[in-house]
Amino acid sequence: MPDTPPLPDSAPAIIPRHGAWSVLTPEGEIVSMTAADIRRELPQWPALMVIHAPATARRLDLPPPPRPCPWLDLLELFAFALPAQGTPPTARGLGMTLGIAEHRLDRPEADLLPDLAFEMLRRISRGRNTPEGGIKAALAWRMRQAGWAWGPSVCAALGLDGADRLPAGMVQPNEALKVWARLPRWEDTAPRPAPAAQPVTGEEARAHLRTILGDGAEHRPAQEAFSHVAAQAFAPRTTQGDPHMVLAEAGTGTGKTLGYIAPASIWSHRNGGAVWISTYTRHLQRQIESELARLFPDPAQRRSHVVVRKGRENYLCLLNMEESVNIALSRGQAADGSLIGLALIALWAAHTHDGDLSGGDLPGWFGDLFGRGLLTGIADRRGECIHGACPHYQQCLVEHSIRRARTADLVIANHALVMSQAAWHALDGSDTSNEDHTPTRYIMDEGHHIAQSADSAFALELSGLEAAELRRWLLGAEGARSRARGLRRRLEDLLVHIPRIEIPLDTALMAARALPAPGWSARLAAHDPVHGQQAGTPVVADEPVLSNPTELLLHELRQQVLARTQGSPEGGQRRGGDSECDLHPMPESLHLAAQGLERALRRLAEPLRTLVARLDEALDTEAEWLDTPMRERIAAAIRSIRRRALARVDGWCPMLGGMRADDTPPDGATPQYIDYIRMDRREGQNPGERDVGLYRHWLDPTIPFASVLAAPAHGVLITSATLRDETGEDNTHDSAERAWDAAEARSGAIHLPSPAIRASFPSPFDYAAQSRAYIINDVAHDDPAALAGAYRTLFMASGGGALGLFTAISRLREVYRRIVTPLEAADLPLFAQHVDPMDNATLVDILRSERNACLLGTDAMRDGVDVPGDALRLVAFERVPWPRPDILHRERRIHLSGGAPGRYDDMIARLRLRQAFGRLIRSRQDRGVFVLLDRRTPSRLLSAFPEGVMVRRLSLSAAAREITGFLHAQDTPASQLS
């Protein structure tokens, strides 16, 4: 076995360095070259060694590399060598993951890349004689045939160099791709009994917290006090519909995660029930899971007690994987980038913790390398699972996760899932076939997002894309090259055993043709005389205007938006070219179109209900031949039809039925819903084509949240660092009471019978010593050049380690374009959301691993990003994050502001500023600066910052000098810097 597996001969390597590029030439020299020099030499070089080929091509101002990638991308090799492991996609990040000496990573040059490759090839070579080595050898062989640039080197490392075929005794390539045949099968267990209701005392929670933390841990009184209060959410419920609601605000650094895990784990162990912990993003789910390593240090034990749950569309579907593999194999021996990606997925699937394709142990950069379409094609799709009829049902990764959640103590979910899950339970009633039993205890972390999450979860959208998606779900692919399975195909195994369902099925499929037919978006654009001609779409006078009732309604909605927003002074325009308008006043033509579609949808709903009823009837009448898998199959079909089709149609019909041309709400009336029309461009639509739809949102979305999730529960803990809005007006009891009342309104607690238990715990950090805050008073907010110059100056003053936040993507991109070159010339690599071909989690990983990196982002980077240490020492916000002035906000500030709409706007801006500042100081050792580049910032918003932070208004140059002095005083204790 060779100690040093071979690399391709004379492989050059490049990484960005010092504003130019560090280049290892084919002759073995380290030189510095510009992007133009590299572009000129590239055609003469052999295969180029890079890290993240799509990002490298963009930075070289080259088109994206084809698939299979002709370059030697070290991330592809990493995915093969260490499947189901992550690494930041940088030279330093890879080096840290592979254990390269630290001194080589401080200022990495291009000669580091071959050493990283050698290390990964050595690891591959060492595993060649293991059982997995045979699988890897077969996959590498097939990947080499498909054109994988690393194929020859990896095959040599696995002892296949020079062989023209695999030995007969080895696993063959096509078999190696069939990972579904090697995965373990899940086994059902007896249903878990309903949990008991024994309480957890505050002192028990405190004691257990100390045990979890272990000897020698930092003593944090606020954390123990928080745990004591959190235990009250686990008291026995005494009245139906009246849960114990605890609102606990815990400042950054309190340690709230372990603080609530302590009472939750006691309650679960004592009562035999699951506690569902919900947070806002997938990234935060993984953060909570990592904290649980303190409670369950043994990974196997942790896996049996803790489960991360997400929506089905986040997971690998083995049936879709099989179909994708078969399609790729049918292409023969030709170079095929998708087959290379599928081979790496097959490796990953054999090692993955839970099959999560997004935010799990599949590296976030994988989709950047092989295309998001590959992951979309193999993921579980909305409503298409055929459950027990699937040949891989008992290996299904989603079903594994669901069954583990039924017996787990702690289930880590996200707000979107728990709200939709609660809504489905309310819809299905006492249906015991639900995927997850109804939890009785919830912990809602990042609770300041409850209203926003509820707004999304309980809103209705009757748009072209949503209606067309329902048609596709019912009818399947209609002449297009697609693997979409229609309802008949998903039920074909049941048709054999229950023939009486065929008539309602066929009737429903016929009625589904009232939904938008393929090509609806282009037809809408073509039949708009003004907009269609502007978009370059020819108008055909003799062509029928529209082909079905849904398209007629979409056409009328589109005309309303164009009529009310085209050329108006305020424009009605939203960022990204979106437009919206009120539903009222409504023309008679729109009213008639709504009536027509309502009738068509009711004709669709009736046979679907009959279909569900006959399937449900079969569960009773056919009991003598129904085995458990078939019963599960029928129950899953019922659930799927209800959730995917009937729930949607039953929501649309009342919305359409309530549309009256003369039904304008009276002035001063408080509506239950906000109805409006919106037109926007969606991903995948051609230029000139835009989706249009009718939208219905709850005026107060915490009402359905309280009704379907909180009220049926026995206890709910809502916690966040920013539950209350500190106005800074006074410190009286009345002021504090108003802040808590507003927090109860935003969390839905006001809609429950009993008042919530309130508690607040301050951050343990010395913000006066550890942080600085400035408002820059000499930068013009509407001058892109001035804004870019300010970001450049601030990032250089901090020496990197900076996060720049924006309220508009267009301004982010413009600033990036102007400052990327000078920053990289100063050895400060710049990355940007909506610019770099990487997902958000990957960008944050880069910021963590690269001490001098700078990152530009929007609101997704403002909340929940955790970058401890000096990797993040500056946060710069481009302007005050006022709420977007759209129709939803207009109505809510009128009706939910208590008659003070200005204060309502201020509250939202202050809470967003608090969240942004919270990214900065994450430990007692951190030191950081917050800068707001908006000289118009009103003083009344400055109470958003923690107590002790003095916000000063300075010129840009003065602030830069102070930032440099403050952040580089590393030898001075933080306590002496105030």
Question: Can you give a write-up of this model?
Answer:
This protein has 978 residues and is an alpha/beta fold. It is built from 38 helices and 24 strands. The strands form five sheets. It has a seven-stranded parallel beta sheet, sandwiched between helices. Strand 1 and strand 2 form a beta hairpin. Helix 23 packs antiparallel against helix 27 and helix 26 packs across helix 27. It is globular. The N and C termini lie far apart (61 Å).
Strand count, sense and closure of the main sheet?
7 strands, parallel
Query: Radius of gyration, rounded?
Result: 29 Å
The assembly state of the depicted protein chains is single chain
- The chain-level structural class is alpha/beta
Number of strands: 24
Distance between the termini: 61 Å
Q: Into which percentage range does the β-strand content fall?
A: 5-15%
- Spatial strand order of the main sheet: 8-9-7-10-16-6-17
Number of helices: 38
- Measured as a percent range, the helix fraction is 40-55%
Mean pLDDT: 88
Specify the overall morphology: globular
The low-confidence runs, each spanning 5 or more residues with pLDDT under 50, are 430-434, 531-544, 567-576, 971-978
